[in-house]
Design goal:
Blueprint: H1 3-30, H2 35-50, H3 68-79, H4 85-104, H5 110-132, E1 139-142, E2 151-154, H6 159-178, E3 190-193, E4 200-206, E5 214-219, H7 221-228, E6 245-250
Antiparallel strand pairs: 1-2, 3-4, 4-5, 5-6
Helix pairs in contact: 1-2, 2-4, 3-5, 4-5
């Protein structure tokens, strides 16, 4: 699909969503909600169906009932500047009302809505923590990390890992606020040397092209230099040349 075809599908979806949102507004009015509350719900749903659901491919509003985990566990914390535990709660409340309305107009089935509610019940705590970045009240264990669902929250123990993750999340947020990709590209290599380690970690910033954002970190300067075809004048201890270990942090 080329850009023009994608753009046309997005426009058609927007028109369809406009009709759905108009009906949803009437539904909320019929429930006796205040104008302020209705505006809040409409804003949350507009963001979900007209921004998130068309970000990677064009998905219909009713198809979004299966995309909660992708939204709250990954997309929302990265894309929404207002992301917090409280905003997750508010958005969930809006989504519950929205998909209840879609059930009423037969765009989703009763079974789909029931599964939707069960997923919220099972994962709400995780979603709130991921957006809040405040893990002091949670205890997190990491295991079987093949899937995002492998985050398990405990009410006791594992405090060090919880604090480490909280520290990481705060630094990721700080990194995004600094927007280093505005003045550094992925060919601007810089090194970091820790006093308690022999290796130098070489880094570059992603994001200048506006496609993906983060930091590439390379350990083992000889391989990095060979990869970039940089002449190394003095490199000691070449008896063992380790492979590059590359970690990509995306947010």
């Amino acid at each position: 699909m080329d850009f023009n075809e994608y753009d046309e599908l997005v426009k058609e979806n927007y028109e369809r969503n406009y009709e759905i949102l108009s009906g949803f507004e009437d539904y909320l009015i019929s429930k006796g909600l205040t104008s302020k509350t209705i505006r809040k719900h409409l804003g949350n749903i507009d963001f979900y169906i007209n921004t998130f659901l068309v970000n990677y491919e064009v998905n219909k509003a009713e198809e979004g009932i299966y995309s909660l985990d992708m939204f709250f566990a990954d997309w929302f914390p990265r894309k929404a500047m207002w992301a917090s535990g409280n905003s997750v709660k508010e958005t969930i409340a809006s989504l519950k009302k929205f998909y209840s309305y879609l059930e009423d107009i037969d765009l989703v089935s009763g079974l789909m809505y029931k599964e939707f509610l069960n997923e919220i019940k099972d994962k709400k705590t995780v979603w709130m923590a991921l957006s809040d970045g405040e893990y002091q009240e949670q205890r997190i264990d990491f295991f079987n990390m093949d899937e995002p669902d492998d985050f398990v929250f405990y009410e006791e123990k594992v405090e060090k890992k919880a604090n480490d993750l909280n520290f990481l999340m705060k630094n990721i947020k700080n990194f995004t606020e600094k927007t280093p990709w505005e003045f550094l590209g992925d060919t601007d290599i810089f090194g970091i040397k820790f006093t308690d380690e022999e290796d130098i970690y070489f880094c570059c910033i992603l994001g200048n092209a506006g496609i993906e954002y983060g930091i590439n970190i390379y350990k083992a300067m000889v391989d990095l230099f060979n990869k970039l075809k940089i002449k190394v004048r003095e490199v000691k201890k070449l008896s063992v040349i380790p492979e590059i270990k590359k970690e990509l942090f995306e947010y």
